[in-house]
Structure formats: C-alpha cells, structure tokens
Amino acid sequence: MRRVTALLVLTNLPDQSAARSLAERLVEARLAACVNILAPCRSVYRWHGQVETADEVPLLIKTSAARLVELTAAIRASHPYELPEVIALDIAAGLPEYLAWVVGETAPSA
Fold first, then answer.
1. At a CB cut-off of 8 Å and minimum separation 6, what does 91 contact?
2. How far apart, in Å, are the Cα atoms of 80 and each of 11, 65, 74, 88?
3. Cα–Cα distance between 87 and 95 in angstroms, integer?
4. How far apart are CA 80 and CA 11, in angstroms?
5. Which 3-state string (H, E, C) describes the chain?
6. For residues 10 and 55, is the Cβ–Cβ distance under 8 A?
7. In angstroms, rounded to a whole number, what is the distance separating the alpha carbons of residues 90 and 63?
8. What is the pLDDT of residues 45-99, one digit of tens each?
9. Torsion sign (Cα): 7, 11, 17, 22
10. In whole angstroms, how large is the CA radius of gyration of the chain?
C-alpha cells in the first residue's frame, strides 16, 4: 500500500487578522487543505543578539509534500516578519481517509 505523504506546517503570525488572512489565502490557493488558527501565545526567542518576547498566533497548516515549496513561498511572500517560522513535520501516521483528503484538497486545479 502506498503511503500518503501529508505534512503539518507550523508558523506564527503577530495577530488574529494576519493569521485569518494568511489561512484563507492558503486554503483558497489549494496550498493547504486546512489551517487551524490557535489561541494567542507568548513567544520568547533570541533575535539579533537580544532576548525578545512577543504575542503570536500559531497556525497548524495541513498540506501535501508536493505543495511544500509553493506553500513556503506563499507564506514568505505575505508574512509580515523578516524571517517567518516555517517548520514542516512529516505526518508519520493518521486516518488514511483524512490524509488522502489533505492530498486531494491540495492538488493543483485542473
């Protein structure tokens, strides 16, 4: 049986409005099958040699491995951060029908 290659991509946005806008663009462009907009969180990180803190809105983006390059480019093109977090995790297992749905929904339109 051929394994469906789906990914979970993580990124953070500075506010709900930016998160909602990016999520809608990604789904409309078929670069994501689904995007979960999570509750705001506090991030602590080192940037340009300084420890910084920021309130951010995490996104969980479900996509296919075949669309990762385009998805990453779309995030970078519209993300307000100089260096956005884009981390892709291979989904090792899941409900086969759901994973097939993710791949199907992210197939380029004919």
1. 6, 7, 8, 99
2. 12, 24, 12, 19
3. 22
4. 12
5. CCCCCEEEEEEEECCHHHHHHHHHHHHHCCCCCEEEECCCEEEEEEECCEEEEEEEEEEEEEEEHHHHHHHHHHHHHHCCCCCCCCEEEECCCCCHHHHHHHHHHCCCCC
6. no
7. 10
8. 999 999 999 999 999 999 999 999 999 999 999 999 999 999 999 998 999 999 9
9. negative
10. 15
User: For residues 15 and 26, what is the distance between their CA atoms, to the nearest angstrom?
Assistant: 17
74 close to 31: Cβ distance less than 8 angstroms: yes
Does 4 score more than 70 pLDDT?
no
Parallel/antiparallel/unpaired status of strands 6-13 and 50-64: antiparallel
Give burial (CB, 10 Å; 0-12/13-18/19+) of 78.
middle
- Tokens representing 69 are 């390059």
Residues 6+ apart with CB under 8 A from 101: 33
Evaluate if pTM is beyond 0.85.
yes
